[in-house]
């Protein structure tokens, strides 16, 4: 087990190192921040001074070497625009994105599991086919388009929910959250539903296939033979078993929800790291963009590493197969 853990950890470090090179080269090779940061009418001397102050006058491999040495000590550079540590800016915005992602995953489970079970129980009925058609639309419709439709319907036409912003926040263990007040909750519902739509469709399909599979098992037939009611069979035996793959998949998908909340946060002006990324790209704020991308890569690596370790604990064949 120790050898398996060390091997996976080494692979994670290599992946992070390679991705840092790709991210740094890709971001730093595009555009010149000086063109945005200073007055276009500034003379050449002022431009050169700005480039020297930001360290942009050095070759890209020298810049990467300095970045790597600083990153190993936890310093991902200062924002060109805000002149504060890029990591601090991201960590300030991160709670808003995490809250949005958690609420979105919660909505995907709360709505997707019952609909998937209904589709599995009534597979050939009109309601079952309607639910599956809706899941296809959830996979197919563009996120930005759905977001605009939600704003037009619930904010502009009906006036039920606000169209943008985070609303009032309340500190929970020192972290600002918005779901503890009605105003904050009303602000998060539309963006969370928009972000949850794709995952909701995935949960519906997982729950439907799981329900159909579980209903064919012998213990379900035995439970019915004992006279146990259908409601108890569905709510206890079926639900408990279909939640295993749902929780497993959503645990892995949580990283995707956080990383790809950019569109939703932009449409609804949600003050998370996704909107920060778009603003930073517009301003060519390279340190913030690099810090965001590396933080996202690290998050995926950590999640996959934890899943690999848990799988190896649950199934020794995983680590034994990896040693061949």
The side-by-side strand order for the widest beta sheet comes to 1-2
Mean pLDDT: 81
Estimated radius of gyration = 24 Å
Distance between the ends: 14 Å
Helix/sheet category:
mainly alpha
SSE string, helix = H, strand = E?
HHHHHHHEEHHHHHHH
Number of helices: 14
List the keywords:
mainly alpha; single chain; globular; 75% helix; 324 residues
Summed up:
With 324 residues, the chain is an all-alpha fold.
What this model shows, in words?
With 324 residues, this protein is mainly α. Helices cover 75% and strands 2% of the residues. Helix 5 runs antiparallel to helix 10, helix 7 packs across helix 8 and helix 8 packs across helix 10. It starts with a helix and ends with a helix.
What's the SSE blueprint?
Elements lengths: L1 H27 L5 H4 L6 H11 L5 H12 L14 H36 L4 H15 L2 H15 L12 E3 L2 E3 L4 H33 L3 H8 L4 H30 L2 H6 L5 H10 L3 H29 L1 H7 L2
Antiparallel strand pairs: 1-2
């Amino acid at each position: 087990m120790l050898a398996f853990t060390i091997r996976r950890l080494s692979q994670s470090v290599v992946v992070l190192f390679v991705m840092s090179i790709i991210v740094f080269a890709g971001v730093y090779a595009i555009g010149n921040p000086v063109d945005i940061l200073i007055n276009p009418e500034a003379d050449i001397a002022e431009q050169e001074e700005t480039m020297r102050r930001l360290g942009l006058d050095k070759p890209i491999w020298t810049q990467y070497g300095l970045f790597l040495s600083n990153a190993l000590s936890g310093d991902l550079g200062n924002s060109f625009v805000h002149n504060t540590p890029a990591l601090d800016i991201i960590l300030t915005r991160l709670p808003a994105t995490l809250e949005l992602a958690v609420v979105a995953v919660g909505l995907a489970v709360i709505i997707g599991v019952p609909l998937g079970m209904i589709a599995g129980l009534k597979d050939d009925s009109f309601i079952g086919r309607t639910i599956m058609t809706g899941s296809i639309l959830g996979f197919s419709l563009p996120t930005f388009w759905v977001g605009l439709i939600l704003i037009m319907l619930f904010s502009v036409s009906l006036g039920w929910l606000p169209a943008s912003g985070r609303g009032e926040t309340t500190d929970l263990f020192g972290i600002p959250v918005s779901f503890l007040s009605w105003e904050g909750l009303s602000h998060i519902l539309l963006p969370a539903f928009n972000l949850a739509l794709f995952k909701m469709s995935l949960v519906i399909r997982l729950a439907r296939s799981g329900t159909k599979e579980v209903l064919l098992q012998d213990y379900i037939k035995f439970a019915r033979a004992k006279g146990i009611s259908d409601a108890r069979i569905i709510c206890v035996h079926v639900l408990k078993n279909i939640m295993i793959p749902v929780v497993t998949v959503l645990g892995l998908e949580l990283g995707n929800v956080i990383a790809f909340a950019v569109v939703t946060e932009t449409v609804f002006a949600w003050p998370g790291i996704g909107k920060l990324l778009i603003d930073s790209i517009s301003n060519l704020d390279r340190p913030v963009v690099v810090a965001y991308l590396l933080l996202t890569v690290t998050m995926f690596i950590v999640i996959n590493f934890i899943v690999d370790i848990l799988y190896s604990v649950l199934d020794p064949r995983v680590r034994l197969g990896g040693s061949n």
